[in-house]
Amino acid sequence: MAGLDRKRESKACSLRVSSSAKMVLKKKKEVQVDAFFFDHRQLEKLQKFSKAEEQNLASLLLHCGQLNNGIQQIQCIKQIMPLVKMMDQNSAFDPMVKACLDILGETYFSLGVKNPLKKVLASSLNGLPEQLMPLGVQSFVRCLREELKTTDIYLYRKVLDNLASCMEDFSLGKASIKNLFEEVLQFLQKSLLDIQEENRKNRGNRVVQTQLMHDLLMAIKVSMMLVQKLQENIQGSLWKNHESCIWQSMCSLLKSSISFLMDETLLQTVQTTSGLAFILFTKAMYEPVEELPSLVSDLLLGLKKHAGMPAWFVSNCGTLCTEELSDSVLLFLCHGALAMLDWKNSSMGESGEKLLLDIASVLLSLSSELKESSMAICLSKTVAVWTNSALAALISDSPSLKIKLNGNSEVIGKLLEYVYTHWEHPLDVVRHQTKLIFRNLLQIHQTIVTGCNLKSDPFFARLTKHLLSLEWHVKGKYASLGCLVECVGTESILQLDRTIPGQILDMMNDQSLAPYASDLLETMFTNHKVQFTSSCKESSWIDQWHDIWVSPLLLILCEGNHDQTTYIIDYYLPKLLRCSPDSLSYMMRILQASADANLGSCSTRGALGALMACLRTARAHGHLELSSIMSNGLVSTECIKQGLVHQHNQVCIDALGLLCETHRSTEVVSEEEMQLILFFLEYSLNSQSPSVRQQICSLLRKLFCRIQESSQVLYKLEQNKTKQELLEDSTKRHPSGILQQYNDFMSSVCDRLFEALFPGSSHSTRFSALTILGSVAEIFSVPKGQVHIFKLDQEIDSTRVQTLIQCFASTFEEVKVLAFELLMKLRDVAFSLQDSENVDLLFQAAVDLSTSTKPYDCVTASYLLNFLVYHKELQRICLGKWIEHSPQTDENTSASTMEKNTLAVIKLLLVNVEEEIFQAKKSLLQAAASFPMYGRVHCITGALQQLPFNNLMLMTEWKQMVARLILMSYELSAVVSPVVQSSSPEGLIPMDNDSEMADRLQMILHEIQPQDTNDYFMQAKILKEHCKIESEKLAVRKPMENICTEMRGKERQMCDVTAQMVLVCCWRSMKEVSLLLGTLCKLLPTQAASEPSDGLITVDQVKNIGDYFKHHLLQSRHRGAFELAYAGFVQLTEMLSRCNSRSLRKMPEQWLSCVLEEIKSCDPSSTLCATRRSAGIPFYIQALLASEPKKSKTDLLKMTMKELLSLAAPLNESSSVIPQVHALNILRALFRDTRLGENIMPYVADGIQAAILGFMSPVWAVRNSSTLLFSALITRIFGVKREKDENSKKNRMTGREFFSRFPSLYPFLLKQLEVVANTSNSEAEELKIHPSLFLLLLILGKLYPSPMDGTYSALSMAPFVPFIIRCGHSPVYRSREMSGRALVPFVMVNEVPHTVMSLLRGLPDCTSPCIRQNNIHGTLLQETHDKEVSEVPLELLLPTPPVPLHINYQLVSNIY
């Protein structure tokens, strides 16, 4: 550590904090509060009443209004009430008080709903003295009446927000609404109708519609608040006079709520809230209220009993009574009834209990119908609400309700079936709600059997047995067991199986299961500790608790595999220490005893690694102080050093985490910690593991933040302490000494990092060093004039700047990015250390690299140019030599240096690429060999991407530049597109100089012409050995026209151009053009019309760009070309979906309709590619569908899927199969697209049907596309394959869950399986395999049985069994094996003995004249797999004599 000491001595004087140099502490970000201002009239009124000699209410308000800071205004408002309360009783007649209250009312209604001033003002006015309340109400009534006169629909939201604010704990606001109840009701009635009509007019404008729907939602909520909080206003004249205005308004609100409820075009939240509003309004208006539950039951069950309904209800709610209600409307009504009716104590009597059970019946029936993700979420939440309502109703001790809701009842059984079906649902929300439902169901039964012993209760006992019999890969098992433990206790679970903690820990090697497993373990050991502490008075229980929960953990930490130990440390260990912090000493004692002997290896942590992990976790969560355990000798410095250089990567990370992570971010970093960090940096920057590098950088960032924050505390401490206190603390570490150590430490860290960036250093070293340096630059950056602990600028010299610039030459782009970001943070000092000659050389190198034939060179050029454009003298030093000077840019002094330089650089690149395009038109082969154009375009795109497009000054020049860039893109694309649009772009480059070969190529080109109509390859080009091209002409051109030095020779030798070079040049050019056009569309604002405006790109240009993308996505055959054209097209479609122009917004829908129509048309002249998996067509449709807002109704997706699924269905033999092939390929892409998420799941069943039926096609192309589609669907249904084992249970689900999620597949698979079985079960011993056999058995084999399968499902598994058994007689071994696995999920556990007996009885007699060995083998395989799921002893399954068998019992026994 001598180096660190020398640095301290050399820099000691530079950082002594004098009395004049003060540290500006970094404060927390203050809440922004917008201040309010009084208008001229209000100011005059306040000035009239204010008194200079004393403070009164008017002068206080005047002072408040003159403040520009919202926080100060809050403090001022809080002084109002104390001042008002000091006034006498006669103040109510004071005109000054009235004027002030008027102004306060106006101010309140003018403030935004999210402004904290509004709540502060309301809170203050709540304290208004009683004698001033009438005056305050009068002022607020006047202001509110003005608000209600608003007629602008788009200003309704402000009025609605004010109404809502008035009703939220604001006495003045509530009183004013009460006085204007009728007017408020009429305003809400009018606003609902107006917003609904405005929404209808703006159909298609998603931005406006979204705003209107949220306004509509707010209007409905305010209407509900009004009825709930001011219901006494309704009661007086409501049903006495049905002609009253209040009654008419309420009827209108009721009618509107039904209209919104049944309008499928509205947002789901609007429909859900409308369901709540309908029940609430009906509850307020209906008489007698005791009949309301029966009315709701009739509506839900579809019973139209008009005779018993009031006339007003039938006239206003006729649609609910007469029409068939959709599933979604039924769901929203159920939710409304559960949320709005009073279920406590069964206050609604028997009719209420019947309604509760009817709602449960409706919800369970809907669970098999509603498959859209949003509806599945809503259903799960509604079922959870039902369980809460049932719990509330049970408080009444109703005997009939208890019988109907006990754990053995049919309703609870069906709800448990719902839980088992959905506890592994792909949506997190549904899984979470399922857990809540299960917990509530247990509580329901627990409430019913209160007073009984829960441990011996048959329901809990049966449930516990079934849950424990499930395999541990079932995620739902963990949450359910956790709920069960809360009811019966951990000890009762452990009595059944003491190895459960170990089994759960064993499952923590899977990251997808680790969170669930750790949650269950936490529930169990926390409950177990509570049980011990309540039953054991002595402390001896802790040893037993440690044996169960801590000892298995330590064993795994020492010897477990990497994944398991990592997940246990991340998920389990923090929870264990939080539950029992004292267990840390037990862990340390056990681990230290064996740390020296068990150091671990590269594959195991050993005791040392386990100790580091425990210490790191404990320190990070505040359970220990590192300094105390090091000073006490519990952990030595040498022990930590061993951990820092351990051969197991994760031990090194844990040791580093022990030093870097603390519970308090301001904890001072000790000298020992700094020395250990420097020791670590010597050995660990070159880690080859990306995850380890990321963790190292993240932990060091935490350390730097800790240094930064603790330094602020130390500065403040030093400034606040007196000299006497400093003398008293002289024995301790002095703050200035610690700050000096910080500075020296950071300087040493930077030295180490820059030393690691030597030429030729590895990628991993550079990545680590640059990432850490970037963190240092970011964390220790402060505005000028502020004192700081450390400045990276002071560590930078010209050599280090050159080192960073050399990192641009790395072939890894992430290194370029890191170096660029670091240089940008240090650009001021970096440019000051670069002379003009060096800048000129850098610019020349960038320009040369932009036309290199090596693709990564143009990336280097882009980063270099993006860095240099910030140089203030760039135009004088470099650009003047290449382009003509533009005096217009100098005249505009408001434009930034970066903007001017970027414009000049793009102009230079554009001039060069235009010249190169001109030459490429003459010889594309020469262009590919000497000046590939994609590099220039890449640099242009990179320059554009860092421009601040919202703050450009040179608008005229940029408009011209954008137009030229678009034109250049089209020209470049026209040159290279014939290659990438060829039906075989990889090899159709004529490059043979033999005339005979050229003739043969010409013949081949003519043969393929019907399939490929591109004209580029119609004439074979022969390259002469010494061909003179345009090089003489290029040599005499000015440098500004072309700077490709490779082309300046007078003669070109043999052009050694390969097909790959031309192809790479062409597809990369297409890629860069697509990204450039996408950037222009994404970053540049569009205007709403085509006439001139401030926009940089016009509507016509956007439309042309869209047509360009459409053409090339549908024509390109090269995957690299259309994949990257897709990336640019996505940027365009996303911009179109947000655009204000109606014509632009409609373009994605029009394009989608056109391409679907072209696919359906089967036009022989169509240029759509039917090979190469339909090439760019799926990408084109994906981009169009991805532009739809995620929270919309996804109308485009629904329309597209409907068309594609109809096209994918099998056709008549006379029809063309090309549309079917396209449809199958597009469906595959859509099912694989993660952005469509759960919106695509409702179409999975239809997709499976299309894929299976496609296998029967006689056309190979259809069968091939069906195979690809089927593979994508299997992944979408069962998840990405996580193990090599095809039969792994991690990618499976129960049969009931599968058919519950995809009910339409039940009859389809059953029918297809019957056809397959009839085909395979031929009497003749010949090979007959149905095309769909493998697919059907593959799907059925992915299912598995569950002990939780009950008897309440409408889908019986039994019909599948005989057909699967018959498939097991196939002559193909693989088919027999798969049928054996497929049989398992369709046999209930209690049916296994009977099924096995039936199979054995089906074996042929030894005297049979025709014994088929394949049949015997298939039967025995099926018996084998059935036995795997049964707990019945083998001897009970074997047939007893006289069943004749030609095989003995020993052979059968061997199978098992």
Brief descriptors of the model:
single chain, 1456 residues, mainly alpha, 0% strand
Reconstruct the topology from this structure.
Elements: H1 2-11, H2 40-49, H3 57-66, H4 70-77, H5 80-85, H6 95-110, H7 116-125, H8 133-147, H9 156-166, H10 171-179, H11 181-201, H12 206-229, H13 232-237, H14 245-261, H15 268-285, H16 292-301, H17 311-316, H18 318-322, H19 327-340, H20 349-366, H21 373-393, H22 399-405, H23 410-422, H24 428-448, H25 458-469, H26 475-488, H27 490-496, H28 500-506, H29 514-535, H30 541-549, H31 551-559, H32 562-579, H33 583-595, H34 606-620, H35 626-631, H36 637-644, H37 649-660, H38 671-684, H39 690-720, H40 723-728, H41 735-755, H42 763-779, H43 798-806, H44 813-825, H45 827-832, H46 836-849, H47 855-868, H48 874-877, H49 887-891, H50 897-922, H51 924-930, H52 934-945, H53 955-980, H54 995-1008, H55 1031-1035, H56 1059-1083, H57 1099-1115, H58 1119-1137, H59 1142-1145, H60 1147-1161, H61 1177-1186, H62 1195-1208, H63 1218-1232, H64 1244-1254, H65 1260-1278, E1 1293-1294, H66 1295-1301, H67 1305-1320, H68 1333-1341, E2 1343-1344, H69 1360-1367, H70 1373-1383, H71 1392-1401, H72 1413-1428, H73 1434-1437, H74 1449-1455
Helix pairs in contact: 1-41, 2-3, 2-6, 3-4, 4-7, 6-8, 8-10, 9-12, 11-12, 11-14, 12-15, 14-15, 15-19, 16-20, 19-20, 19-21, 20-21, 20-23, 21-24, 23-24, 24-26, 25-26, 26-29, 29-30, 29-32, 31-32, 31-34, 32-34, 33-34, 34-37, 36-37, 36-38, 37-39, 38-41, 39-41, 39-42, 42-44, 44-47, 46-47, 47-52, ...
